[in-house]
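Work Package 3 (structural annotation) set out to generate three-dimensional models for the target panel prioritized at the project kickoff. During this period the team completed the workflow that converts sequence records into discrete structure tokens, so that structures can be stored uniformly alongside our sequence database. As a representative example, we reproduce one entry of 593 residues exactly as it appears in the project archive.
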Amino acid sequence: MEENKKIALVGNPNCGKSTLFNLMTGSNEYVGNRPGVTVKAKEALLKNHSNITIADTPGVYSLSAFSPDEKATENYLLYEKPDVIINLADSRNLRRSLYLTTQILELGIPTILVLNNFKRSGFVSEKDLSAALGIEVINICAKNKIDVSACAEKAVSLIGTKQKKLRFEKDGKTQAELISKRYGFVDEIISFCAIETEGQRKLTEKTDKIVLNRFLAFPIFFGLVFLVYYLSIFVIGSSVSDFFEKIFSENLSVFLIDLLTKANCPPSVLSLFENAVLSAVFTVLGFLPQIFMLFFSLTLLEESGYMSRAAFLTDAVFKNSALSGKSLISFLVGSTCSVTGMMSARTIESKKSRNLTVMLTPFIPCSAKVTVIALVAQKNFESKNLTLVFAFLLSVFAVIFSAKLLKNHKFFKEDSSFLIELPAYSLPSVAEAVKKALKQSGGFVKKAFSSIFLSAVFLWALSFFGFINGEISEAASFDKSFLGLFGNFISPLFTPLGFGNAQCASAVISGLFAKENVIGTLSMFSSSLPPITTADALSFLAFNLFCPPCIIAVGTMKKELGSLKLTAFALFYQTVFAYLLSFVIHFLIGLLF
């Protein structure tokens, strides 16, 4: 039996590795250019080769093993010992890419340097670059599928060959001196091998003079963020959600319930279908348009090259805390789902900055919390838009305040390092952005629906059944149900916050399974909810925004933090912060209204 051979794809984030991996293997892995998209090496067989495996390693800037992604890539190269390395470099950022190339060549593994995006960004002399590095160099354009097969054939031809190691004298050299020496080597190569497209360079320079201007940078940044959320939640997302609600909730649900009633279904089955099954379906359909628009908008920002600039800007804001500029990426991604937001923190170089980012990402309203905000606004306030703005501003305050408060805590006291590339600007493809948003939304809904459905059924059972004469049977009222009894038991804890009733207390507890359950639980008790004031509503909203996230997110937090002790601290802090902030809001708003 022929021995299986391995080819590793290695390169910076954003260079197109996952796209090339999909083309070479026929796979369908998610393609994106934010950090953390590839979090461990993914493997698949090379097309037309049953004994050659291609490994897509996490995107890294170096093999210095600062972040989990860098450790994963370095460990793969050192311990899996691939037969060939395809070092993919984005020719728009050749200097940054070639620094990683120098480290790869020190390993002595047969390597081919593949320059991606050359059709759009300029020309690099393959012959001169190959001679300078002593390896094969080819140009491709993975996005347009140009010369991908040639890349695969060249890599296969290197299997079994020898590679001379690139050596830098390290004796007596500090890390800073080694970095400087490598960059000096890279600069010498670029000086006679690369010819940059003048138009591309001038466009990027002129644009950066505006978007990175000391006076205009932050107004532009906040304007773009506001535009993303306004379109996603207030305009398109809200309009489509209202349409879905009218079609499905008002028409289809009435039809289905009437159909089951005529079929003489038992009251318990009818209640289960109406309050659990349909509730779960309508909850998912309700926030699907908003999720899609958020994914779509963030993808456009990523592909344009602006997201890296935004992270660069916010690093100046975060420099006096333990956060990093890259934390912004996690917070923006977390606005769709806290789980993916926390995972995207993996490329933050400082461990303590990474941990604090993971801990604070759930403070950003995810798509599920947005629906809670919308429900509270709809039921209690005339302006839903103002309530959403209030909630997001409160979240920004919570993140910045917490980062300042915790920066000297033993878990997070460390200066954060910051390294991120600023790619050339490019015109994003709307069609590709739609395709990615559909795929991401579909995957998120699939995951969310399963958890929402199971928790909805569980909560329905707790609210439908109770102890009657020592036996479990249908509860005569909510107060007699398991959920009602538990809600009544814990409700005094929330009395100082203004929502010390069994219904609201039960909704808070249900939100720990999935934040969408807050809506479903309140909907089940809409007819029996006691009247609440403006102060009560805002306090309830604040507590649900900042208390510990859903079970799935807590599990992800534990995995990303890698410490049960730190996870417990994070959950404790989130609970205390949510309680105290809700108390202050209830007290202050109560004085005003």
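The first strand starts at residue 5 and ends at 11.
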